[in-house]
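EI: anyone free to look at a 428-residue chain?
SC: sure, send it
EI:
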Amino acid sequence: MENINHESGKLHVTGEAIYIDDIQMPENLLHGFVYTSPHAHARIKSFDLESAKAVKGVHAVLSYQDIPGHNQLGPVIHDEPVLAENEVQCVGQVMFIIAAENEEAADEAKKNIKVEYEILEPILTIQDAIAKNSLLQPERKIEFGSITKGFKESAHVIEGEFESGGQEHWYLETQICLSVPGEGKDVKAYSSTQHPSETQAIIAEVLGLGKHDVEVECRRMGGAFGGKETSGNHVAAWSAILAVKTGRPVKIRLFRDEDQKITGKRHPYIYKYKVGFDSEGKILAADIEHYANGGYATDLTMAILERGMLHAENAYYIPNIRIIAKPMKTNLPSNVAFRGFGAPQGIFCIENIIDIIARFLKKDLSEIQYVNFYGIDKNNIAPYGAKIENNRLFVIYDKLMKSSSYKKRRKDIDRFTKTMSSSKKEWR
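SC: here you go
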């Protein structure tokens, strides 16, 4: 088989690959820094930036009042400000941006910023959000068949609740952008973004320019995994505003602790379920609820939530199913795209249910999976109405069971577990 080399592979290995931090910077470069909220939820009663602006080496300290265009970063729903206006909605929300000659000057400026807050009660967990019916957007629902009929026909019914946590993207290159003012109104942004055209649109909207006035270049990223699909827009917008206001190139590179504090993660979920099944483990009815922790702004939560719903049955035909998904609003950074984009959460839920059924019936997990697979010529309609075609589940299953010697390994593991359990009892 012919090897296909990565076009930048040699450059990566030798360290010659040029990332934004490796670009030869102009002598008049300024460094951008952010001032973030120390509170999860508070009303901004007043702020004073004058002393901060007077610090030597500081060229700009800007608030939402200095934004020439729209104070919005929301890629779909406009509910995420570039800079906080009347209130802060999470720890780490950016309130002010600073352009300075060095980090020391910026740190001194931060110390001189005066803000008066009225502390408000935050919502920090999905449980709290559910209790207070704190929704980002209206719930979504998919229904197929009749769960009432399905539960009546079920020999066994189990219901319960479990959850999955968030996850940090941990890209090696943190969020970064170098913005360079050009002639007239032109701005060029060297941005670490997964979505250059969206970054271009956001910068143009924030600056009150046409998209033709903004150029965005992304040669390569030092990792992203979904974390730079929308979150890269923030740093790009902040650096572009500072560049326009100062008339000088401005680079913002978030420190690792800042990056983790400011940016969103994979959406944590709570799942509530009620499932009816027969003595063979065949699911006859499922009532499933997904509660996603969206953070304080919508971002791509609705697309992620809906993608999770479309994977709620995974590889299994469920004749009677209801899926309700709710995007919960909390006082945390807005959660964002992450590898799988909602599919891992949807699949995690149903696979846990399959495991619960297997344990209840004292059967092997693989048996419950097999009996619930989508069919070839029947039992092949998804909850959202699509016909499942070219079904290879049974072929793949048979090959994997054989190639992995699954049944033998299962017996060996069970025997080992029993032996170890007996040994522990004797030792005690």
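EI: The first strand starts at residue 30 and ends at 36.
SC: 👍
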